[in-house]
Amino acid sequence: MAETRWLDDHEQRAWRAYLRMNTVLGAALARQLQSESMLSMPDFEVLVHLTDADDARIRVSELARVMRWEKSRLSHHLSRMEKRGLVGREECASDGRGAFIVLTDDGRAAIDAAAPSHVDAVRRYFFDAVTSDDVKSLAAIADRVIARVEATDTCPSV
After folding, report:
1. Could you tell me the CATH number of the domain that includes residue 81?
2. Distances (CA, A) of 27 to 10, 36, 108
3. CB 3.0–4.6 Å: which of 16, 100, 121, 144 could bond 57 by disulfide?
4. What confidence score (pLDDT) does residue 95 get?
């Protein structure tokens, strides 16, 4: 077994700051979204993926993959969203396997109403606090970390 490569003081400070930033930023954005739109962050993420998809529809298995959620967890969440009229389900006529999640008119209206204030909050809490060089660095760091995780992930399809 390889010897543990402990974090040095600078790495530990950076790692803990990243974790804390992720926690406080995520909580602030979740509160803003919930209070102004009655959507949770997972609701919003589902709706974003649907608005980005062709014909505002996506297979449940693909949505689970991109959200990195277990299919059963996602299925329960989608059922709650379906009861609220934000999404619908359609069987896949071409192969009979699985179903599509489809954006409803109410779901489209919900994300259209929520997006402007959410983007304002993202800008206020995050982008207004960093420089354009910071943004470029963050994008490069994120790309490298994501690539490394995805290249070594033993369970990418959840």
Report:
1. 1.10.10.10
2. 26, 14, 24
3. 100
4. 67
Assigned token pair, 10: 């600078």
Please tell me the total count of domains within the chain.
1
DSSP state of 72: H
Reference 97, options 79, 71, 67, 76; nearest CA is 71
Q: Is residue 137 part of a domain?
A: no
- Cα–Cα distance measured from residue 56 to residue 48, given in angstroms and rounded to the nearest whole number: 10
Go through the chain and tell me how many residues it has: 158
Q: Which residues of the chain have pLDDT under 50?
A: none
pLDDT for 98 equals 74
Write the pLDDT tens digit of every residue in 32-56. 999 999 999 999 999 999 999 989 9
Whether 125 is covered by a domain: the verdict is: yes
- Full residue range of the structural domain in which residue 20 is found: 12-130
Q: In angstroms, rounded to a whole number, what is the distance separating the alpha carbons of residues 143 and 48? A: 20
Asked whether residue 6 is domain-assigned, the answer is: no
User: Does the pTM exceed 0.85?
Assistant: yes
HSE-CB for 106 with a 13 A CA cutoff = 11
**How far apart, in whole angstroms, are the C-alpha atoms of residue 43 and residue 153?**
26
